[in-house]
Design goal:
The chain is mainly alpha-helical. It contains 8 helices and 4 strands, in the order E-E-H-H-E-E-H-H-H-H-H-H. The strands form 2 sheets. The protein has a two-stranded antiparallel sheet. The chain has a two-stranded antiparallel sheet with strand order 3-4. The chain is globular.
Length: 171
């Protein structure tokens, strides 16, 4: 895992250019904030905006995922759905050609973090989950097991689609 104080962050990129600001955003995740914050709450807003911008990912995205998963695993308090959804979305984007190749020095930690998302879901399974958390945790599990299409489907479910499925309305 790329240490947060490593100068390599400045060589990695995110949507807005060099990712030297990403370690500070990741450090802010270590502060307990609780689950299901507003969509524009920091640091999640800036992490989403820079690391998975309109479905595209960047080299800094791959370096950030191990830290996000590590923090989710280390946190005993309930966590925000973005701990599941952002890593899952980054992997979906990577696997569907919406980002660069993973740099070789980040590859092992990245893949380990992706598979460790099942442990994160398991650790937090007894918490009360919102619909967003449930769908994101399911997507994280699907991504960790290599089911990218199912993960993407879970993240695209909304009240309308769920109602149509439960009512067998497929027209």
């Amino acid at each position: 895992m790329l240490p947060l104080d490593n100068k390599r962050w400045g060589e990695l990129s995110h949507c807005y250019g060099p990712a030297a600001d990403t370690p500070a955003l990741l450090r802010a995740l270590d502060l307990p904030a609780g689950p299901d914050l507003s969509p524009d709450a920091e640091p999640w807003f800036s992490l989403w905006s820079s690391l998975c911008h309109q479905g595209d990912v960047y080299t800094a995205s791959y370096a950030a995922v191990p830290h996000i998963v590590r923090i989710g695993l280390a946190t005993t308090a309930p966590i925000d759905f973005s701990f599941y959804q952002l890593p899952a979305s980054i992997e979906i984007a990577r696997m569907t050609g919406r980002g660069p190749e993973i740099p070789a020095d980040l590859e092992e930690a990245y893949h380990h973090a992706i598979t460790s998302m099942t442990d994160c879901v398991s650790l937090h399974r007894h918490e009360t989950w919102s619909r967003s958390t449930l769908l994101s945790a399911g997507a994280a599990q699907a991504v960790a097991k290599g089911h990218i299409d199912i993960a993407e489907a879970l993240l695209n479910l909304d009240d309308d689609i769920i109602a149509r499925i439960t009512n067998f309305d497929f027209d």
